[in-house]
């Protein structure tokens, strides 16, 4: 470790940077020059403080920055050690998503592009499974500089994130309270959907029934169901709720509101087979937009958040490291199906 100490002292004496910055730069240079390799242990805080003549707080601050950059880690009984020898990466990021549906792919592509090449992103999928979610969070805790998490909205799920450093955690997509100082970039469902329905009211009233496909036990937002109920009660409309599509539902005069895409594709397929005109004989409103929905059958009307914007804003949070509590409202995209 004499080489590390010599490097830090040399940097500190020959440049105008702070002491803690000279430690960060010294460790980085030693890695680049192969004086420190993957798995090598670093001096303890007390040892480095004594060797350099710097305050313990300075060493702690430098080691914390190196950890946040994903260059070093610490373990009880081992101390600090080199965990990543790719010093060009200023940050290692853990991205935890529901799955890789089209709209989440749109988020990822925008997020990845906005971050640029200096960031490494590891992606994990929990599929709204509490056991998988807990396993992922336990396995990644303390191993990344930043954490971007689409949370499960279930009892006790918020506790799993409570031990994460608030400054290094970003909640995306669905809202979940962890602590006041945890950043969030999330959707808003209930009021946005009510506005969408009011905008479409004259179209909706042309149909005899509203058919909603909704799984109460799934990851479907509960606010969607509440908005639909409020709207039909307010305007005295007919509503039927099913967990999944059945061919018996395909009747002239029905308006279909799909939350999951599997129901949507079945409706479109059977409507074509039976020569139903989408947008005339039957109507379709779908949650979450995608390029495919803008094309198929002349276009499917959607109620959707802009996941590209969400991805760009999440990347900006990573780069700027400034607290944010942003709600991205969902919007109506009118097309031929309604």
Describe the 3D structure.
This protein has 338 residues and is of the alpha/beta class. It has 3 domains: 2-82, Arc Repressor Mutant, subunit A, CATH 1.10.10; 91-188 and 307-329, Response regulator (Rossmann fold, 3-Layer(aba) Sandwich), CATH 3.40.50.2300; 190-304, Response regulator (Rossmann fold, 3-Layer(aba) Sandwich), CATH 3.40.50.2300. It has 11 helices and 14 strands. The chain has helices spanning 2-14, 19-32, 45-52, 56-68, 102-115, 130-140, 190-199, 201-204, 222-235, 261-273, 307-320, and strands at 72-75, 79-82, 91-97, 119-125, 146-149, 169-173, 183-188, 209-213, 239-242, 254-258, 283-287, 301-304, 325-329, 331-333. The strands form 3 sheets. A 6-stranded parallel sheet has the order 4-3-5-6-7-13. The protein has a 6-stranded mixed sheet with strand order 9-8-10-11-12-14, sandwiched between helices. The longest helix is centred in the first third of the chain and has 14 residues, at 19-32. The N and C termini lie far apart (70 Å).
* Physical arrangement of strands within the biggest beta sheet: 4-3-5-6-7-13
CATH superfamily of the largest domain: Response regulator
Q: How many angstroms does the end-to-end distance come to?
A: 70 Å
CATH architectural category of the largest domain: 3-Layer(aba) Sandwich
Averaged pLDDT: 90
Low-confidence stretches: none
Structural class: alpha/beta
* Strand and helix order: HHHHEEEHEHEEEHHEHEEHEEHEE
Tally of discrete structural domains: 3
Number of strands: 14
């Amino acid at each position: 470790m004499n080489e590390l100490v010599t490097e830090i002292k040399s940097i500190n004496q020959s440049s105008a940077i702070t002491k803690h910055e000279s430690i960060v730069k010294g460790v980085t240079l030693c890695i680049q020059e192969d004086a420190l390799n993957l798995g090598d242990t670093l001096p303890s805080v007390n040892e480095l403080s004594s060797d350099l003549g710097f305050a313990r707080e300075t060493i702690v601050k430098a080691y914390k920055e190196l950890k946040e950059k994903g260059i070093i880690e610490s373990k009880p009984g081992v101390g600090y050690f080199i965990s990543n020898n790719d010093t060009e990466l200023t940050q290692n990021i853990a991205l935890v998503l529901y799955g890789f549906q089209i709209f989440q792919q749109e988020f990822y592509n925008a997020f990845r592009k906005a971050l640029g090449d200096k960031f490494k992103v590891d992606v994990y999928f929990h599929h709204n499974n509490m056991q998988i979610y807990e396993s992922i969070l336990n396995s990644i805790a303390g191993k990344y500089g930043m954490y971007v998490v689409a949370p499960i909205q279930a009892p006790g799920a918020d506790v799993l994130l409570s031990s994460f450093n608030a400054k290094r955690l970003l909640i995306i997509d669905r809202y979940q309270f962890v602590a006041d100082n945890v950043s969030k970039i999330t959707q808003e469902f209930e009021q946005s959907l009510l506005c969408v329905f009011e905008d479409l009211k004259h179209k909706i009233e042309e149909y005899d029934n509203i058919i909603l496909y909704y799984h109460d036990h799934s990851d479907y937002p509960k606010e969607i169901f509440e908005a639909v109920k409020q709207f039909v009660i307010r305007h005295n409309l007919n509503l039927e709720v099913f967990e999944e599509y059945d061919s018996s539902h395909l009747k002239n005069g029905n308006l279909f509101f799909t939350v999951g895409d599997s129901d949507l594709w079945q409706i479109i397929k059977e409507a074509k087979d039976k020569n139903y005109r989408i947008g005339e004989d039957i109507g379709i409103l779908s949650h979450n937009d995608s390029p495919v929905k803008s094309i198929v059958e002349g276009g499917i009307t959607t109620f959707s958040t802009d996941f590209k914007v969400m991805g760009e804003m999440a990347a900006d949070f990573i780069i700027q490291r400034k607290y944010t509590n942003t709600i991205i409202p969902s919007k109506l995209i009118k097309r031929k199906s309604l």
